[in-house]
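Input sequence (836 aa), recorded before submission:
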Amino acid sequence: MTKRTLLSTSIKTALISSIAVSSAASVSAYAAEETAKVERIEVTGSRIQRQDMETASPVTVIDAGSIKAEGYTSVDEILQAQPAMAGMAVGSTTNNGSDGMAQVDLRGMGAERTLVLINGRRMVNSGSGANSAVDLNTIPVAMIARVEILKDGASAVYGSDAIAGVVNIITKKDFEGFQFDINGGATDKGDGENLELSALYGFNTNTGNYTFGLAYSERRGVMQGDRDWVEKGSSSFIPEGTLGGKQLDQETGEWIDRTYGYDFTQDSWLQTPNKRYSFFFNGTEEISDNVSLTADLLYTKRKSKQMMAAQPANLDLAVCDANTVTNCITLTDEMIKGGIKADEDGLVNYRKRMNDVGNRIYEQDTDTVRASLGLNGYLDAGNGLDWDVSYTWGKNSADTWVHNSIHQGNMEKSIYANQDAWFGGQPMTQDMIDAVSYKETTTGGNEQHTVAGVISGEAFDLDAGAVAFAVGAEFRHESGFYNPDPVIVAGEGTAAQQDPTKGSYDVFSVYQEVSVPFTEKLTGEFALRYDDYSTFGSAATWKVGLTYEATSDLMLRTVAATGFRAPSVSELYGGNSGSYDYLTDPWGNELDDQILVNYVSDENLDAESSESYTAGLVYSPSFIDGFSITLDWWRFKIDNAISRLDVQAGLNNCFAGDTSACEQFNIGADGDLSDLSNPLTNVGYQDTSGIDFNLAYTFEALGIDWKINNDLTHLIKFEQDGNNYTGTIGGMFGGYAEYKNNFNITARSGAWSVMYSNRYIGEMNDINTNEAIDSILYHNISATYHFSDLITANVGVKNLTDEEPLMIPSENDAGTVPEVYDTIGRQIYAGLSFKF
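Predicted structure, token format:
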């Protein structure tokens, strides 16, 4: 799968040789003189346990204190606020198509390309079923000690899905006592309330620690119609119904052109409501002086909802003629006079907003559990060896419903049986409602089993220090399923047809890492991994990193790595799935900008392959205490990418006369989009690069402790499948601002602290119209006061100046892109923490 080059072949040969050398060295070192055990830690991005955090890979750490001060109530909110995020990850403001999930999109390369770990081990994919990414709603903020974001390709260390990087969530452990927290907030307009209650209890024994936690959170909705900046919708689907594009004038009885468009914003949320119930546990037990048992458990129940306007029913009805006398409608003289007539196939289009049935209510009830059991220890052999074996199991199950759905077949039958009742413009009777409406019921789930083992230590000594290594193996089984309602599978609903999904795969992996101190200043880090999949075959990936301490103040670092992503269960076995995408029909045949696209999967998909490069420096001048800067250039290239092509570009190209585009997307003659399709393929690619800059400074002045931190990401380029998205925004792909920046300053003295922060999103151009979209700056302020060692309070305001989201012509909801901009407005929050 990976491309063979002279460089890669040489590196693989060197690493394979180092496996043999280090393995032999560790055995021969067994008889060496006994040395004292030195405690080492595992750093995100490496399996080698080390005494410090300095590695060649850039890592951002967000601790629990910062999370609380910023008023974050969900993991996706924490992550999506980081400048390194781009694209369009679904979250609390995604009302259409999210199924209540929340995801992370590092570098804008797709949620499926960012690996999520808990305590260094995989988290099960989760959501509504057969998912390809982790639902961050399953991880309560209350359990987080810190979040580590590895902004570097890490497939050689962690395997598939780590192409863009890794998010490693470290949970609270080794806690003693009892802590109760209550946090809540709302907008200054009196809606969007949120509440989080959590309790943490831990105790020590002579041989270990046991920490338990409970958390409950609730987020209430915000309606689009409750924000002045939301422009009214204008849909061609109106409650009175239209026939052949005409509506009935109740006063004159004539069929006339449609006089208005339906405002659907009154029935849609800007912020979707949900409730989450979580239990988590961390335990450590020392079995002997050199062997410990560790265990962690997480369970989360999520109950979430989304709401949209009543179902738009779109039917092509048969018109009675000499050949068709049943199951058809009769065009009256008034209809014919109004210009209503059958098309060449003897059909006429009927559209109706089904308000009499009720709004579409999407509801999810998901249960996610993850348990991990590990045995680790220390072997007093040679310079000492650390070992770890573990079993991690995760399971996610979901029941989802869509209330007030419409059965298209039954609706057609009802219309043919009583067209006067349907076309008369009067409210539907209860019998009519009962005949055509139903509740969609869907089930789905994901399951993961992982058995892993690793041994690490110091193989032998060089003049500059010890050569450290880690060797490990892993077996993982992934499975998923998704069963849509039988009406939807049969294509008999007014919602898009969708096939069921079911499948699984196994993967066996072996890997090794080596850290070599070439000199006292220069250290090399090498990793090699081999994965064998039951689906597409095998993949070999490698990583090479160098750190160079140029001076006591300056460290230079660079990493080159290859990566891969295996096709997910849904990508392999998903079948056909319909989606109403926001598109512009260049032929002008479609009346609305939501057009049905058939998404098609492929069992013969291959894995993606990638290359990543970073180069940077860490500078901490000795003449300025507490000051440091980091600067990193990065580039990611994905080949053979599993992707869906740009449908809008396909429409435009077909309209311009490109027949291959017409064939590729199943576009018919004269712009017929009735079978518009977008298949998954391996022909895609991504090429993105940029610069990350961080400045941190802690100092004392005026009797106050100050802390300044600034994170900047400059996106140089983001290209995908022949399209340049650099500096653009659109409803289908999200935002790729060239500049994003986070700044915060904290002042602390005694019992109090105050923090001001801002978040900047640079200007962009609309992806389709090229219209310039301004930059935006959000301001936040918070304060914390420690009344005593037992009681702490905090209060804050997010979006202090109540900045409204920017309007985007190629929007996906409410005239903007809610996944990029703050659509809720000014929010006020507060919290109390009690510790005993």
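Checked by second reader. The chain has twelve helices and 44 strands.
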